[in-house]
Amino acid sequence: MVKKPTLIAFDLDFTLWPFAVDMSAYVAPPFSKNMNGQVVDTRSRKIKHFKEVPSILKRLHHEGYILAIASRTGDPEAARQLLKLFNWEKYFTYIEIYRGSKITHFKRFKSESGIDFSEMLLFDDEHRNKRDLDTIGVMMIMVIGGVTHKLVTEGLDKFSNSYEQK
Ligand SMILES: [Mg+2]
């Protein structure tokens, strides 16, 4: 039997988009849409997300997963603004964006949803988050170079296989 997670969470920086939203070396918020409908920052630079993200969110939402954001950025406002401008807000049931260990973010998901840690899966690019989440039993898939359909499929397989071993 294929065991699936109930809730799938994503990090933001270097997972859904290729920059840190709170670092001026990358971007200068606030963001807006220009006349061509492109998302830009105050330097009029185009703000891009990793290519496959919109279709990944659409796919997982369609497949019935509960989707969430867990981000430790120091600029939650800018992050939320991008979620809105990219039109991704509609996919996420839970959004937790603030500094500190991601254990806090996941405890929030658990208390709000009633879903157990063992039913959650996270895609994230930072090892320190994996170390933290290991301690509460949330599986994390390491992201390198942005999330892709291939990685999502591999992550879901890994989640299912971990259950078979139990
Ligand atoms: Mg990150």
Automatic annotation (TrEMBL):
GO terms for molecular function: acid phosphatase activity. It comes from Homarus americanus (American lobster). The gene is MDP1-L2. It comes from the Eukaryota. This is Magnesium-dependent phosphatase 1-like 2. InterPro entries: HAD_SF_ppase_IIIC, MDP_1_eu_arc.
